[in-house]
Design a protein that fits this description.
single chain; 7-stranded parallel β-sheet; Rossmann fold; alpha/beta; 2 domains
């Protein structure tokens, strides 16, 4: 099914073509027509499924038919759990707006940076992408009000609950007008998500797409057994010997991320870390440079990776193993985006063996494991 069959306007289709989209992903094919019809949506979808465009495209089309927002009212509110995801979603809105005759004003607001510039920029904003805490701060400062919201989007609602935003979400829901269209997206069907769905959505259309656990066949997985002492040199060997470009490396702590970056830089590999202790400016620059191919390696913790969504990311490396099989699947799912292949590499120390067996059992997949004891790593 082509995008032209989904009810999108000529202007929106031009934007889609300009961004190189050939055909809609499953969630886009199901969600776009329903959103254009004004239906509420309950989407069960992982990051990387094409979810963002599934609500961005119809919302932009709906806004083409309406007058711009005035003063400090917003028409579209998108709630997200992290700063990185806020910036990413706002960028998607802006990118698809480029070819439109009526370009809505989109703004991302989030904590960790000064609130004053965000307050100044809110004037006449049509689409506001926000983390819950910062949005409440802006509301209390009378910098924005929600009584004119026509469309509410909750993206990665389960992660917002995991990060402790339930009270903030309830406060925001109470400020929204009852007559609106609501779109709720979550990767899981936890009881709390179901409760939010029941209270927030009216006769919603439920859309469930394949989870990453079912799409891992697109990802080539390989593991290398290596001692802790040789992990660093083994990492550099893989990157240099295989001439890897655009490599996302996962570690378990901010300290480890910084340590790995220092070692990579000393050995001539352009790398940067992305974690909660970095300034927002540093995180934004690192992610932008990585996405645009100017940064070869990005080293990230699990939480900081939530906003990393690159359609053709070729490599993910588990420098340290995650705490759960679910986290492992989420990590390797950064590659193998939707219909494109990728490679996931894990460095397995003796302490990781038991956890890696559990992960493989959970995936119902045996990962090819290579011994490295006799591998000559001199010079790396």
């Amino acid at each position: 099914m082509p995008f032209s069959a989904l009810g999108l306007s000529t202007d929106i289709l031009k934007s889609v073509t300009a961004q190189g989209y050939a055909k809609p992903y499953p969630i886009q094919a199901l969600a776009i027509p329903a959103i254009l019809e004004g239906k509420d949506i309950f989407g069960i979808a992982e990051t990387g499924s094409g979810k963002t465009a599934s609500f961005v495209l119809p919302i932009l089309q709906i806004l083409q038919k309406s007058k711009g927002s005035k003063n400090r009212s917003v028409k579209v509110l998108v709630l997200v759990p992290t700063r990185e995801l806020a910036m990413q979603v706002a960028d998607v809105f802006k990118t698809f707006s480029l070819a439109l005759p009526n370009k809505p004003k989109t703004l991302a607001v989030y904590g960790g940076v000064s609130i004053n510039p965000q307050m100044m920029q809110l004037q006449n904003t049509d689409i506001l992408v926000a983390t819950p805490g910062r949005l409440l701060d802006l509301i209390s400062s009378k910098a924005v009000q929600l009584s004119s919201v026509e469309i509410l989007v909750m993206d990665e609602a389960d992660k917002m609950l995991n990060l402790g935003f339930r009270e903030e979400m309830n406060q925001l829901f109470a400020l929204l007008p009852p007559q609106r269209q609501s779109l709720l997206f979550s990767a899981t069907l936890k009881d709390e998500i179901v409760n939010i769905k029941e209270g927030l959505l009216k006769n919603p259309i439920t859309i469930e797409i394949q989870k990453e656990t079912q799409n891992i066949e697109l990802i080539t997985q390989v593991a290398y057994r290596v001692s802790d002492e040789r992990k660093g040199v083994m990492l550099r060997y893989l990157i240099k010997n295989r001439k890897m470009k655009q490599v996302l490396i996962f570690v378990s702590s901010t300290h480890r991320a910084d340590h790995v970056v220092v070692k990579l830089l000393k050995n001539g590999i352009h790398a940067a870390a992305m974690h909660s202790k970095k300034s927002q400016g540093a995180r934004t620059d690192a992610l932008r440079n990585f996405k645009e191919g100017r940064l070869r390696v990005l080293v990230a913790t699990d939480l900081a990776s939530r906003g990393i969504d690159i359609q053709f990311l070729p490599y993910v490396i588990n420098y340290e193993m995650p705490r759960s099989p679910t986290d492992y699947i989420h990590r390797i799912g950064r590659t193998g985006r939707a219909e494109s292949a990728g490679e996931a590499i894990s460095l397995i120390s003796p302490e990781d063996e038991h956890q890696f067996k559990i992960i493989q059992k959970k995936m119902r997949k045996q990962v090819n494991t290579i011994e490295t004891d006799t591998l000559d790593l001199m010079g790396y």
